[in-house]
Every structure is written in C-alpha cells, then in structure tokens.
Amino acid sequence: MQKKRFGLDIDGTITDPATFIPYLNQDFKKNLTLNDLTEYDLTSILKISDDDFWEWMGLNEGKIYREAPLAPDAHSIITQWNQNHELIYITARRSHLFDITKSWFSEQNVPYQHIEMVGKHDKIEAIRQHQLDIFFEDKHDNAVAIAEEFQIPVILMDTPYNRLPIPSNVIRTKSWHEAQIWVDSWLKQSIL
C-alpha cells in the first residue's frame, strides 16, 4: 500500500467537540450543550465581543488544551493509520501553545510526524507545503476551502456548528468509526 499523507485538525476533530463547553458554562454562567453550538463563532452564542472572547481565550486556552479529551475512537483509529501513513496535524492554535500541545500528544500517546501551528483558521498554505492526500476537519468553511483548493477528500467530523451544504469531496461522518470505514475504502481504491 502506498503511504499517504494524512492532515488532521486538532480541536473538535481529534479532540471531543464538546471540550470547551464546561469552561464556557462555568465562566459565562451558561447551561450550553453541544447541540446549542449551532455556529462556529462563539461570540454570537455567548453574546460577547471578539475582544472579550479573545481575552477569555488568553486566560483559559492553555488549561483547556491541556485537559482536552480525545474524541471517541480517535486514538485507536489514528494509531492504526500511523502504521502505514504519515500523520501531519495542522491547527489554528497559536504558536505559543506548542509546548502544551506537544505535551498533550505525548500524554495521550497520539502518534504524529509533524504538528504545524498556523495561528489562524486559514490552513491552505500549510496544506500546500505538506502535500497532503486527505484532511480531517470540523470547521465547515475550512473543509470546503481545502477540498476545493486541492481536490482532495476532506472528512468533516459532524457537529451542530458545521451543518451547511458541502461539495462532493467533503465527506460528513458522524464518528471516527464512520470516518475509518470511508478512509479504508478510499485507501483500497487508491491502490487499484
């Protein structure tokens, strides 16, 4: 089997998409569930300004990322793919969080060949640089832009905040198990 280059987002993709909710509920006196997060932009859900949100993130993101739980089944599936493929993580996290991120990967025993922290949601140049064959994402507009720019399959991990229409090479999956079934079929077809 030909080695493929898998690109993976971190937050909301390999980590549980509900990771932020307990922190939001505590600090903003809310009672949110994942189903309440129907938009990626949390400022409109929380009814706060961008400045207030980023001030809150600056105070809390290290702790949140340090304690983030893995999405169900992500670890075992990613570990299995790591046996034959390269795993390159491209995240919007800012570079000052690199040590926390790398420690989290080590503590969770999540395999990787490279972690790229682009510090913004636009991941196009990083994906171009790494010449990826497939990408895993939870942010709708990122998934669409990546699929259209590179004509590669993008696995969109289904969440309430990403349910807008998608092009045919964006594959919405409800679980890591469902993603694995699609990817394993894609891998078999690519060697024919």
Please write the string of helix (H) and strand (E) elements: EHHHHEHEHEHEEH
Strands, total number: 6
Spatial strand order of the main sheet: 3-2-1-4-5-6
The CATH architecture designation of the largest domain is 3-Layer(aba) Sandwich
Strand content: 5-15%
CATH fold category name of the largest domain: Rossmann fold
Provide the residue-averaged pLDDT.
95
What's the Cα radius of gyration?
A: 16 Å
Spatial shape: globular
Tally the helices: 8
Which spans of ≥5 residues are poorly predicted at pLDDT below 50? Answer: none
Helix content: 40-55%
CATH superfamily of the largest domain: HAD superfamily/HAD-like
Q: What's the quick description here?
A:
The chain is an alpha/beta fold and 192 residues long. It has eight helices and six strands. It has a six-stranded parallel beta sheet with strand order 3-2-1-4-5-6, with helices on both faces.
